[in-house]
C-alpha cells in the first residue's frame, strides 16, 4: 500500500522528514495582535517569539479550513491517507479534517467507478507536537511493514491510546490566558520558580508533579515518562523544543540514562507548539 501521512502544523516534523514527500503539514494560522502568521515553511520561530513578547495580547491560533484538508486528500498520490491532528480539546483541527473526509468521500461516491481508489483516516492524536509525530512515525513503520489500511488504522489508534505526552514549560502564561490552566497554578509556578511537570489525560492537560527549577523538572518528567513507558527497548521517544536545542539534548540524555530506547528523536517546534509551549518549552511523547 502506498501511503501519505498528513498532519496539521503541530506535527512538528524533523528536518529530514520535511524532505520526505510522504509527509505533509497543513498550516494553522497564528494571530499576534493585528499580525497574522501562517504556520508553514516560512515560519520564523525567533522572530515570532519576539513578536509575542512585544505584544500585550495573548497569541491565538486558527485551524485550517475543511477545504484545505480536502484539497490535500485529493492531491495525495497514495492508496492510504492518514491524517493526524491536534487534540480536539485544544483545537478545531480534528473537526475540520473529519468534515473534509466526509466531503471528499461524498464527492468520490458521486463519481462512482471514476473515483480514485483512495482511503482516508482522520486520527485525533489526543496530544500535540511530539505526540503527533510519534503517531506518524508509528504509522509509517506499519505501512513500510506492508500492513493493510484497516490494520494500520487499528494499530495506530491502539498506539495512540497507550502513548503518553509530557511537557515542562518556562512560562504557563499562554495556557493560562487561553483557559487551559487555572490562574492559581500559573501564579505559584511563576512566584516560586516551581516548574510543573504536565501531562495529558485523553487529550486534556493535567499536572503530574512539580520541581523547583527547570532541570529538576525535566529530570522528574523523564522519571515519570520512563516509569509509565515500561519496557522501552522497542519504543521511540520524541522530544520537541521551543528555541532551546541544548535543553532538548539534556532531556534526551536524561531519557537515555533511564531507558534503552529504540530511538530518541529531537525536533524543533513549529508555530502552534511555539504559541502554547512558549520560549524554552520542552514536549515529550513516548
From TrEMBL:
Keywords assigned by UniProt, alphabetized: Lipid-binding
Kindly give the InterPro entries that the UniProt entry links to this protein.
Answer: DegV, DegV_C, DegV_domain_contain
Q: Does this entry carry the keyword Manganese?
A: no
Entry annotated with the keyword Metal-binding: no
Q: What is this protein called?
A: DegV family protein
Amino acid at each position: 500500500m502506498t501511503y501519505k501521512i498528513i498532519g496539521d502544523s503541530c506535527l512538528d516534523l524533523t528536518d529530514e522528514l520535511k524532505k520526505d514527500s510522504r509527509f505533509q503539514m497543513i498550516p494553522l494560522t497564528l494571530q499576534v495582535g493585528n499580525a497574522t502568521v501562517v504556520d508553514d515553511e516560512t515560519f520564523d520561530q525567533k522572530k515570532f517569539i519576539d513578536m509575542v513578547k512585544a505584544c500585550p495580547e495573548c497569541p491565538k491560533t486558527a485551524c485550517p479550513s475543511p477545504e484545505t484538508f480536502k484539497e490535500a486528500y485529493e492531491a495525495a498520490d497514495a492508496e492510504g491517507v492518514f491524517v493526524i491532528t491536534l487534540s480536539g480539546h485544544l483545537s478545531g483541527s480534528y473537526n475540520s479534517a473529519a468534515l473534509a473526509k466526509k466531503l471528499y468521500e461524498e464527492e468520490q461516491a458521486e463519481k462512482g467507478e471514476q473515483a480514485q481508489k483512495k482511503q482516508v483516516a482522520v486520527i485525533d492524536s489526543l496530544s500535540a507536537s511530539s505526540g503527533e509525530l510519534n503517531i506518524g512515525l508509528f504509522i509509517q513503520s506499519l505501512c513500510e511493514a506492508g500492513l493493510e489500511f484497516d490494520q494500520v488504522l487499528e494499530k495506530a489508534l491502539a498506539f495512540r491510546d497507550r502513548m503518553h505526552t509530557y511537557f515542562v514549560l518556562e512560562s504557563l502564561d499562554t495556557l493560562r490566558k487561553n483557559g487551559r490552566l487555572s490562574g492559581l497554578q500559573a501564579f505559584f509556578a511563576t512566584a516560586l520558580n516551581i516548574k510543573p511537570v504536565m501531562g495529558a489525560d485523553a487529550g486534556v492537560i493535567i499536572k503530574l508533579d512539580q520541581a523547583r527549577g527547570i532541570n529538576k523538572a525535566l529530570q522528574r518528567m523523564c522519571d515519570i515518562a520512563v516509569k509509565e513507558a515500561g519496557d522501552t527497548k522497542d519504543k521511540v521517544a520524541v522530544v520537541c523544543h521551543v528555541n532551546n536545542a541544548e535543553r532538548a539534548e539534556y532531556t534526551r540524555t536524561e531519557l537515555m540514562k533511564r531507558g534503552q530506547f529504540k530511538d530518541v528523536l529531537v525536533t524543533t517546534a513549529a508555530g502552534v507548539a511555539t504559541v502554547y509551549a512558549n520560549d524554552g518549552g520542552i514536549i515529550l511523547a513516548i
